[in-house]
Queue: 4 jobs
Job 1
Amino acid sequence: MPHLMNTYARLPVAFTHGEGCRLYDEQGRTYLDALAGIAVNTLGHAHPRLTAALVAQAGRLLHVSNAYRILEQEALSDRLAALSGMDEVFVCNSGCEANEAAIKLARFYGHRRGIEQPAIVVMEHSFHGRTLATLSATGNYKIQVGFEPLVPGFLRVPFDDIAAIEHVAAHHPEAVAVLVEPVQGEGGVRVAHHDYLCALRRLCDQKGWLLMFDEVQCGIGRTGSWFAHQQAGIKPDVMALAKGLGSGMPIGACLAAGPAAGLFGPGNHGSTFGGNPLACTAALTTLSVIEGEDLLSRAATIGQRIRQALTEGLEGVAGVREVRGDGLMIGIELDRPAAELTKLALAEGLLINVTAECVVRLLPPLIYTAAEADELTVGLVPLIRRFLGA
Ligand SMILES: *Cc1c(COP(=O)(O)O)cnc(C)c1O
């Protein structure tokens, strides 16, 4: 056994290389990737433009320190601001760090307004990361148990339920912000209604709260728009990004606008590695390829194609509760725990995932072709039917 902490129930396969939407294991077996390293490999594997950009950057400069200007980081902040309409960017290395920055911003904002114990409204079934603050914000007891005492300052409400949050607004003067995933990922691919997101925007404006979107999983083109919330026609005050931003290079970002911008000054927050030239080059190249290869519209159309094939192929199958999602973020909710399906799929050369126990989750790279989408659904539908005994 390797000397690794036993933190993952890993499938018994190791990949040696990949190309496009395929991965290859030690035995030379081929797999169709419908997970993308959990929404990370936006451009699939070994994308020639990303490889070339990283090789060139690695030959110039990997890391300097945020004690100096970093041109690639400045360029990335400009690009993200232009795509999102946000004002400022803090660059970090992961999703939990992006959320930590958001949580710190909200508390800082609260203190500025004279609220000494500021609280952030968070959702049931949410996932925000594994650090102490982000696991405390997470709406999943399994992720918290054993790590108490939790970080205080979170108020929990049901997801996609505006009445519940209005109730909190009426009774909690210490609330200063809402943190929500426009599409919950780990929680089972649950898409918030656009009406709900718009109502949240209005409530935050009324109360002077920060509207903070965790788009770590649903952002960067996955739902067919640069950011999932853009489909509701609104803008948050804070947004967390990571996963797909670097297409495999670790990078995260916390974006701020309006009342959340201009809060932090030197010394309030930082990161040794955050925003190094190599990671920023990965992100800049990812964004440029998404635009150049028109991957937003592809995510929308291929996602629609997959959902439609699944809906038709699984129609009337007892045990299938719902096929849902947005773009290339797709969930198939079953009536029973489905972890076993990842093993059955692996044996068939398909890489899928199961989350929230009963939800088969598909997060393909944004470069999926119609042929790859069909290969996925033609393989997956009979597997699910067989698994359910249908
Ligand atoms: C994965 C995820 C995180 C945590 O990101 P890490 O990079 O693992 O720290 C936070 N929020 C959401 C919505 C995620 O999907």
Job 2
Amino acid sequence: PLLISNLFLSSNLLSFFSLLFSAVLEEAHGILAELQSYNGAGQEIREAIQNPGDLALQEKAWNAVCPLVAKLKRFYEFSLRLENALRSLLEALTSPPYAPMQHLEREQALAKQFAEILHFTLSFDELKMTNPAIQNDFSYYRRTISRNRLNNQQLEAENEVNNEMANRMSLFYAEATPMLKTLSNATTKFVSENKTLPIEDTTDCLSTMACVCRVMLETPEYRCRFTNTDTMLFCMRVMVGVIILYDHVHPVGAFAKTSKIDMKGCIKVLKEQPSNSVEGLLNALRYTTRHLNDDSTSKQIRALLQ
Ligand SMILES: *[C@@H]1O[C@H](CO)[C@@H](O)[C@H](O)[C@H]1NC(C)=O
Ligand SMILES: *[C@@H]1O[C@H](CO)[C@@H](O)[C@H](O)[C@H]1NC(C)=O
């Protein structure tokens, strides 16, 4: 238990640090900062739409939107890299001969990276969800492109985001929680591609991490070691992230009686946290899980999430 409790607090990362993950995670911080300061071109777009005959305003809006779309493309491309990083992590955490629990204990650095990826994912989605400018900017961009295509004009920016890329980005940003969806798709794919690997190896790894986070949040001795609210938030996000992945990958999901995740305990401890992010995380459980509305979900759990 001591080892487990050190999982996320441990500062002496074991030698397992691979360059790939540290590069991805380093970039993740930059992406979050960029998204945080993403203000959108709402004003320019409004003016352009209200004055369709004013070419200068059309151009102004277009010039404001193009660099933003380049940013959105970078975010999207990062989601693809994150997907690859997650695959490698899952591969490492489930590789024989060790059981998932042993992997987590032996390779705490890997577990920590997994946690960091989930933390990034939920932070990104939280920011995206509260920023309507993203979809507004992107749909303006697409409308402008298709209008100009009809007029047979070639737009320079089409080289940057061609039609196929725009379609894929559009699907990505249409998701309420695009990064989480990317990860759960990737986890599902990982499990289905590795038929020889028992599904439990992957889901046990996820339920173990959920358990570690829950225990850390519930136990006063651990909680007082959280030097700042960031660590608490980190734990909360990771717990919710692994629950959602588990629910997508496991055949009966996280809410069933047979689930290896103590959902009642997780939801209760989440609700007790003094943080502005609680509601967003509860919403992630409500709206991005697959099995919450199954008959097998107990009334108690439903009531807790109501
Ligand atoms: C996840 O997979 C579904 C089904 O294959 C697909 O429609 C959706 O676009 C994917 N979402 C992301 C964000 O990859
Ligand atoms: C999972 O599948 C991938 C690709 O098919 C393969 O490279 C990898 O070794 C498999 N991993 C395990 C643990 O079976």
Job 3
Amino acid sequence: MYIVYSVETMCCLKLIVFSALIAVVRGERRFPDAFKFGAATASYQVEGAWNVSDKSASIWDTYSHKKPSVIVDESNGDVACDSYHKWREDVQLASELGLDFYRLSLSWPRLLPNGFSNYISEDGKRYYNDVINGLLEKGIEPVITLYHWDLPQKLQDLGGWTNPLIVEWFADYARVAYDLFGDRVKSWITINEGIVACEGTYTLGSFAPGIYSPGFGSYLCNKNVLLAHAKAWRLYDEEYKPKYGGKVSLTNQIIWPQAHSEEYEDLAELVLQMNGGLYSHAIYSKEGGWPPAVEKYIAEKSAQEGYTRSRLPPLTTEEINLIKGTFDFYALNYYTSWLVRSPKEGENIGKWPLYGCEEINALLEPAPEWPPTSSDWFFEYPEGLRRLLSWLKKTYGDMEYRIMENGYASDKRDLNDVNRVNYYKTHLEQVYLAITEDNVNVTYYTAWTLLDNFEWNDGYVSKFGLVDVDFTHPDRPRTPRSSAYYYANVISTRSLYDDDLKTNL
Ligand SMILES: *[C@@H]1O[C@H](CO)[C@@H](O)[C@H](O)[C@H]1NC(C)=O
Ligand SMILES: *[C@@H]1O[C@H](CO)[C@@H](O)[C@H](O)[C@H]1NC(C)=O
């Protein structure tokens, strides 16, 4: 099955690449020469093989097994895309697409079944070495995320991200990964979307391990995420960067909050500080610490509510200095935007779509003209990406910006995915404008995702893949969609190009 797809893919890609080259000759808009295109996946979403060899359970294994009702189709990641067995096919697809880099995450309980670094799984080590070496053999840079939400259950049993000791446990895990793979991996992401890991779990109560503790658990988790990231960054900076010369940062997903009208611009800025600032200010700002507007807001609100101290745990001077400056680039994940305003008298805010909007009494709604997707939190507004990049540069300064996720959700298994093609086209155009018009130094663009996969609470219903996966088939056959051909074109020409190119199958 696979070989057939593979040959077809290569044949079609060559034809399309040829016509795209003609487009370049006609003077299409080119990305800078050093600009890199890639695609991403995450361990729990694609690997499957949840109980092979000595791997222990992650919080998503436990959660999806014990509470299937929290996942729309009551599915789990037991098999997923079976990338644990089929990684060669994934690498081959990445190669056929022409990816410059492939972003994958390590499963902490696959590598360290105890959660702690006293024992390293030989099988986990072998698996990630295979994938990393396989990518390098094809000339594809491996970009590794250490934590994409599959915490070892054994550490969750000790409090997980609310236990301050996780800062040391995470640094120990990072050391193992740097020791094993650092000679070949030059781009590291410590923690993916801390806001989702913390607020999805504690504010919404819907992400594993599903502990509903809004306004408390999320802030404890937030503080420990910042400290764990900082320790892992400093460890690399001091002991590994001198010999390997790689770069380390964390990824933040930020929803662009567009003020409904001028009177809500201050509120929109507060929303940005809640959803971007809580995971960025301490690291990227000159002064460090919590974003001042949010810190003040929560302290005052906590006092009004009768608490003896702020629900947002303070950062000591030592902690502020530990966290400040622990980056080599800014890594942004972008999907969607929302309009922001204050609720009218008696109007219900709801706790979705934006984390923390309840806390600051901000109502978010899509603009009527933004096309919806299959995810209820996700509407299309490509300009939001450019605006967000400008805001980041204005707020945190001129540095290297990497887009580490961007992509489109659909509940259809369509191979001719014109909506997804359009999403990539319009968003890449905004990236191009951010670089050429706004002088934001964007260096990486990452499509989320290479393959349809287990999409957390959306199970297998929401599909983000450039490549379709048949989850009803035991072999999980993979078939590239139109968007894969479109993206291969962009990569081979390093440019945006006209609509007259064939992008369907
Ligand atoms: C692993 O999990 C599968 C279910 O996904 C089960 O059928 C199998 O027996 C388990 N294997 C072991 C070794 O526990
Ligand atoms: C952008 O960042 C990269 C990586 O730090 C650097 O090499 C490059 O010179 C920067 N480009 C600009 C235009 O500042």
Job 4
Amino acid sequence: MGNDSNHKRREPLARLETTEEALSDSFKHYLTYNLGRSSGTTPVYAYNAMSLTLRDRIMADWRNTSLAQKQVGVRRTYYLSLEFLIGRALGNHLLNMGISKQTDAALQTMCFELEDIQEAEADAGLGNGGLGRLAACFLDSCATLELPVTGYGIRYQYGMFRQEIINGFQDEEPDHWLRDGNPWEIERPEYSQRIKFGGYTEYRHDDSGKLVAKWVDTRDVIAIPYDMPVTGYRNNTVNTLRLWHSTATDEFNLDEFNAGSYSDSVAAKNSAENISMVLYPNDATENGKELRLKQQYFLASASIQDVIRQWEKRFDGEPDYSQFAHDNVFQMNDTHPTICVAELMRILLDEKGLEWKDAWSIVTKSLAYTNHTLLPEALEKWPVSLFECLLPRLLDIIYEINSRFLRAVSQRWPGNTERQSRMSIIEEGPVKHVRMAHLAIVGSFSINGVAALHSELLKKGLFRDFYELWPEKFNNKTNGVTPRRWVAQSNPLMTELISSQIGEDWIRDLSQLEQVKPLAQLENTEFRQNWKAVKQANKARLAELVKERCDVEFNTDAMFDVQVKRIHEYKRQLLNVLHVIHLYNQVKNGDIKDWSPRCVLIGGKAAPGYLLAKDIIKLINCVAEVINNDSEVGDKLKLAFFPNYNVSSMEIIAPGADLSEQISTAGKEASGTGNMKFMMNGALTIGTYDGANIEILEAVGEENFFLFGLRENEVEAMRSHYRPEEFIEHDQDLQAVLNLLRCGHFNSNEPGIFNNIINSLMNPHDPWMTLADFRSYVDEQAKVSETWQDQEKWVTMSILNSASSGFFSTDRTMHEYNQDIWHLEPVSG
Ligand SMILES: *Cc1c(COP(=O)(O)O)cnc(C)c1O
């Protein structure tokens, strides 16, 4: 923020008052004089007026934090991510500023309800799922820990699509989240950056005879930054999320205009504006589209140039580049921004005139890479030919990086050409590709996975060759979630109950939840009663939402069994559906002794091109239709598909869940973070030995966790001789379930529509080996049902799950990144 440098000290801005009266005056001012509305207006305008009121009250801290972070000697981190799934802002800022009460009161006197106003805010859905939500939780924790961390991303005009369900099928609608304006963002055109595409490299010798490269004849695009405040929890620290918007250059119309094609040249503006138009809606799959590579370079180049611009202002005269890596560190969220490696080299070589070895030393001391998945379909590879057209100068640099790297490999393993070709940044073959993960590893000083198992598998499998070369680069940072949004904000009743017992400090230091453990004991009848009442109230709130969105009645006395996450074969929503069909069979067979009634909720978006995932959504809806309309089933079993699962719906769903479904094929879910949100909110988990489930199990104890299924090594050992029929032959329950599917019981009017699903389950090459875990899943679910019969036991387990969730705060995660990778000092505003 601000074009301030050290020699131009600014007056600190005065903080504005946050009394009920001040808030009410400011709100009225914005509503009437700024927005031109009267007191009888709709919630959207009231939301805008209140957001502007609060933004004013964030501004002084925002400027002070920003100035403090620009001081000489302050080391800073830049979190580079193509996704920030931030959701709504208003309630979050209110919580962090600690002024919900007076805001609510101020609104009431003007006949507005805070809740209605909050509902008017569109989710900022600038991400697909876990990876994007993680970035948002990280920013929250960094601001709370007063770490000088800035987020850099893209201001997509269309975020994650809105999912509608039509005749049981997913329909995608564009999410024009900026239509009513975004009161939280501040446009800063004065810090725009120019981004080059196309053209070619020109080499010439400079006066001293040195060969210098120049990237010429480019088609340029302008990146305009929009800043969003990231408030810390009650600490007056406000960090920044800077999102880039793409637009055409002014001059770029002129040539064509002179040639007489004014309309064509104006139309050509589109290709520049397109870069930040839309988020690619694929989770854990590579996109391979030209526009996506443009987005990646656009973010990398704009952000690096912006960091260099700010950092150079620390110097009176010539910047001392030997200090750069001392002052700056970039954390790359997956391989998406990995073109940074080559872009930082390009700027240092071509624009700052550094020698290769000096530039490379800076790059490899300031970049760090987080891997998010082992799935081969997610590993980014770009055709060399695409690089040649779009980023020719960066391709030159990548080739040079690679040839120097391969020389080092051949020195370490002389004559091992096999290894060289395995490790090369360039994949040879009929179509040559750039392997972005290899570029990230070669260019980074730190490479981390996101849960203990995942980080081990990286070293043993995918990145083994690199681990053997540079073991010291590899480390684990188990993910987390922010307890501000995911407990304090989304579960006010539980927050109040916990705070009444142990004070409020746990919100800043989640390990203090340990103090709740003794309260789980049976003699604490009052606390346990209150705990139950809180869950019951949260279930009622969720049931109301389910009724409204799914038109299905959930009885709050039943177990709320929830699986919400992106729809993907590896996450095995299918296994969940098979279990629901099995329960349905039990009811139909009268096998209902000691029945535990269940309301099963499944939600999530499928990538629009992922046909099997879309079939799974249809299947869930078809099974739900049959079950929910069978009078014999009644309240014993309900199934609902929750449409348009997003951050603000998770804020209602997690507190209302009894059972959290975390049932991925072992070895496939890198970490998961939904699992942590449920645990914090007192749900019990049924899960495989995968990702952070393992650490959840260790934290809460196996007696408080429902574990099932093959382990990662068992999955891999079975893969080559997996025969689904074997599992069917020996399992009458599975036979019954598959028979219902095969005979079209759930799709009598649409025959054959589930054939692809059935075939995938029956395929000996099914990578997710769903049927191999069916028996163990169904048996463990029976234990879940049995435990539900003992409500006292369930409450104990629920309390212990929340009380053991302290490790899964992103405050802990950020502390570890800082200790091991970033080495930042806290800076207060
Ligand atoms: C937490 C969260 C996710 C990640 O869920 P997983 O179960 O870890 O895949 C995805 N989407 C939203 C909206 C979330 O809040």
